[in-house]
Amino acid sequence: MPSTIWFAPWKPGLADRSRAADGPVLVSVTEFTAHRPWTAPGVTLAGLALRRSWDGLEGAVGLWLWAASDVTRPRSGSVSVWRDARALAGFVTRHDHVRIMRAYRKRGTLRSTSWQAAPFEHGATLRAARSLLTGEAPWPEAEAAAGPGHARSALPGRRPGRSDT
To answer: How far apart are the first and last CA of the chain?
Structure first.
């Protein structure tokens, strides 16, 4: 039986208030699968700490954190929405984010994908992310030229775009 996925409420960022309703955005979905169950609480706390500063991030449209209910295979991550790839790259290289990634890189497996959406629709974005996280839709295959933060022009599963980091 597949695990239940819980999403934290939408947390708007600075760009949510200034973004044009029909403007393009970059959606990023991450999934961290811990090797050991006791790693999960620390990962969750680290995600919550990053979420606290979310509303002050330049280029951040909004964020959902998520966690899966499977105790033996703890998974968690985020669905973040950005004005563009530059804004996402700015977050990924922030000191606090880099510190957390280094602390947990050998304690689990991370995968991520991103795509462009125009216009941005909360419901459609959450449904697309949920379909990836539940296994209903496959994670896109890696592209040779794709790196972290590489923008995709289609919804997940419709065009290659996986980026394992």
So the answer is: 28
* pLDDT at residue 76 tops 80: yes
Q: Nearest Cα to 15, choosing from 53, 61, 52?
A: 61
pTM: 0.81
Q: Reduced to 3 states, what is the DSSP secondary structure of residue 51?
A: helix
**Maximum Cα–Cα distance across the chain:** 43
pLDDT tens for each residue of 95-107: 888 888 888 788 8
- In a 3-state reduction of DSSP, which class is residue 46? helix
Positive or negative: CA dihedral 78, 79, 82, 88: positive
Burial string for 60-81 (b: 16+ CB within 10 Å, else e) reads bbbbbbbbbebeeebbbbbbbb
